[in-house]
Amino acid sequence: MIKGKTIDLWSLERYNLLEYLKWSNDRELIHLTGMPTLPKSMVELENWYQNAIKNPTNKFFAIKTKEGEYIGNIELNYLDWITRSVEIGILIGKREFWGKGVGTESTLMILNFIFEQMDFHRVYLSVISHNDRAIRLYEKCGFKREGIKREAFYSMGKHSDIIEMGLLQKEFQKLKKTKLKEFFKE
Ligand SMILES: CC(C)(COP(=O)(O)OP(=O)(O)OC[C@H]1O[C@@H](n2cnc3c(N)ncnc32)[C@H](O)[C@@H]1OP(=O)(O)O)[C@@H](O)C(=O)NCCC(=O)NCCS
What we know:
It is globular, with a radius of gyration of 16 Å. The protein is built from 6 helices and 8 strands, in the order ββαααβββαβαββα. It is an alpha+beta fold. 25% of the residues are buried. It starts with a strand and ends in a 9-residue tail after the last helix. Strand 1 (2-3) and strand 2 (7-11) form a beta hairpin. The chain has a single domain (2-177), classed as Gcn5-related N-acetyltransferase (GNAT) (Aminopeptidase, 3-Layer(aba) Sandwich). It has an 8-stranded mixed sheet. It has helices spanning 17-24, 27-33, 42-54, 102-117, 132-140, 169-177, and strands at 2-3, 7-11, 59-65, 70-80, 85-92, 122-128, 144-155, 158-168. Coenzyme A (COA) binds next to helix 2, strand 5, helix 4 and helix 5.
């Protein structure tokens, strides 16, 4: 478990899947995250989970409150130990926790873990261009825009761009001493 101030990151467990199934079929969450748009069944999710836990290039975390309530996921994809780079994704599935700083805390915790504990060089992610809250969060954490996949996502009757963002270890370490100093204060 990775311990935070208001939330903790646990390994995603099989018993979390029923809640996750609701989120992965939620139209608004699909629209915001770019998750696959086709409906998912429990069997499909279960198969996905069984494959994911066997795959050494993935790691899935459950975001939980200090009371143990499961509120979202953070995932690491394409862990590459040669380039020392990894893709991350975040989803706070329970809407009542949006806009309360949980996304910021979870993202900074996982970035700190990747850059300080794993000594990785680069973290990257994709975000749909209409997801203003997520873009704000990533820019606040130091991510820079690296490119755009034009009209690569389709949901709710419209195509949207996918923005590619990246953050280097040295940039994160600099931010920890400046803009993010308050967050990392012991
Ligand atoms: C995106 C998400 C992870 C952000 O987490 P959160 O806990 O809701 O966000 P935070 O409270 O940490 O706020 C992050 C920043 O966004 C800003 N913000 C909040 N709502 C916003 C909005 N509608 N538009 C723009 N910025 C917004 C906040 O003010 C904050 O910036 P600040 O600290 O400079 O004020 C979360 O809302 C979520 O999981 N949403 C649904 C799924 C999703 O979009 N995942 C990301 C896929 S790339």
